[in-house]
Amino acid sequence: MTERSGQKLRFGVIGCGAIGPTHAGAIAQIKDAELVAVADVNADRAREMAEKFGVGKVYSSDQDLLSDGEIDAVCLCTPSGMHADGAVAALLAGKHVIVEKPMEISLEACDRMIAAEDSTGKKLAIISQHRFDAATLLVKEAIDSGKLGSLVLADATVKWWRTQEYYDSGDWRGTWAMDGGGALMNQGVHTVDLLQWLAGGVSSLFAYTRTAAHERIEVEDIAVAALRFENGAVGTLTATTAAYEGFPVRIDLYGTEGTAVLEGDRLKTLKFKTGEEFHGEAAAAHALSVASGGTASVKNQAAVRLETNTAVADPGAVWGDAHRAQIEDFIAAIRTGGKPLIDGRAGKRPLEIILGAYRSSRTGQPVTIR
Ligand SMILES: NC(=O)c1ccc[n+]([C@@H]2O[C@H](COP(=O)([O-])OP(=O)(O)OC[C@H]3O[C@@H](n4cnc5c(N)ncnc54)[C@H](O)[C@@H]3O)[C@@H](O)[C@H]2O)c1
């Protein structure tokens, strides 16, 4: 055991904007955790969040929070291009760190974070909460157990809608320097991660990107790519914030022995050549029942609440409810000395694909990822 065995793990949240309260709310639901401090350079936001969650300590800078010896772990909820500086500082200050997605906006920045993770021995986890959805875990198990056969085709679409006001709402949004990209980097990273985790890694791709439906943004609002996976399967990826007025994310996986389709947080279809099949509500209910009572690997990790996908047009609505499950996985890694499901190296993988897609679009050439 590590970290004040027998006592709750004490968290601080840095960044009290759109996603900070989701971390605070998730921590509040975890018996083994306690939120003791929040920090934001915007004092009103920090105070408001502290009041809402009954938090005693309010800091106006991340550095002040990091010097607080009472804090064991921090959730880093700052703009994407600030993640490496924040995470490295936190790890060097002796804190475990859970960082919002995307891990960072360049591979060099990710490597700095991994180096600090390695040298300090503190835990680093990168949010990709949909890996913990019951439906995702059920499909992962169907693939890993061989039930779906060998994967031949995998398609993913993120057809969301973001208003111009959304991009205008923060000076970092839609910029290369801090958002690091658009529909693919910001909104699509969840789905890129699920796709590469389920389908087994992308080996090469060819992509086109456009900025077509918004003004005053530097980054793409449409990205499409053709993919080749490490096992030889092929697939497609579409990510956009220009699809009025937003549709649930969808991932279709076709194997030699069956088909799995995820829509939002739900299992839409799971169908095997053996004749076993689940569709629509029955599929969602099946995922839930397996998650709450079924096989060990699913049961142990699943977030058992499945919701309709609300983030398709509302940036303030967090898609799903799996932050709690991921923070629990992070705490378990701290308590047991194990690895969180998405450590620094795992968090970097979707970035390799996204940055590869940008390179392909810029050069007009296919790009090798691995
Ligand atoms: N997992 C998800 O579903 C999800 C959803 C939304 C956002 N995010 C990610 O969360 C991160 C934050 O996004 P957001 O939409 O909450 O942004 P936001 O702009 O609403 O909030 C960011 C906050 O960080 C604060 N901040 C900036 N620099 C700081 C510093 N040095 N110290 C302390 N606070 C600082 C800002 O004042 C702001 O309040 C991004 O990386 C984004 O991609 C993830």
Task: Summarize this entry quickly.
The chain has 370 residues and is an alpha/beta fold.
CATH superfamily membership of the largest domain = Dihydrodipicolinate Reductase, domain 2
Query: What structural category characterises the helix and strand content?
Result: alpha/beta
Kindly state the number of beta strands: 15
Q: What pattern of helices and strands is seen along the backbone?
A: EHEHEHEHEHEHEHHHEEEEEEEHHHHE
Q: Give the overall average pLDDT.
A: 91
Spatial shape: globular
Question: What do you see in this structure?
Answer:
The chain has 370 residues and is an alpha/beta fold. It has two domains: 9-129 and 324-342, 3-Layer(aba) Sandwich (Rossmann fold), CATH 3.40.50; 130-316 and 352-363, Dihydrodipicolinate Reductase, domain 2. It is 36% helix and 23% strand. The strands form two sheets. It has a nine-stranded mixed sheet. Strand 4, helix 4 (83-92) and strand 5 (96-99) form a beta-alpha-beta unit. Helix 1 (20-28) crosses helix 12. The protein is globular and about 55 Å long. The model is unreliable at 294-309 (pLDDT under 50). The structure holds nicotinamide-adenine-dinucleotide (NAD). Residues 14-19, 39-42, 45, 61-62, 77-80, 82, 100-101, 127, 129, 170, 186, 318-319 line the site of nicotinamide-adenine-dinucleotide. Nicotinamide-adenine-dinucleotide binds at residues 14-19, 39-42, 45, 61-62, 77-80, 82, 100-101, 127, 129, 170, 186, 318-319.
Topology:
Layout: E1 9-14, H1 20-28, E2 33-39, H2 43-53, E3 57-59, H3 62-66, E4 73-76, H4 83-92, E5 96-99, H5 107-120, E6 124-126, H6 134-144, E7 151-159, H7 164-168, H8 183-187, H9 189-199, E8 202-210, E9 222-229, E10 234-240, E11 250-255, E12 258-263, E13 266-272, E14 277-279, H10 280-293, H11 296-301, H12 323-336, H13 344-363, E15 367-368
Parallel strand pairs: 1-2, 1-4, 2-3, 4-5, 5-6, 7-10
Antiparallel strand pairs: 7-11, 8-9, 8-15, 9-10, 11-12, 12-13, 13-14
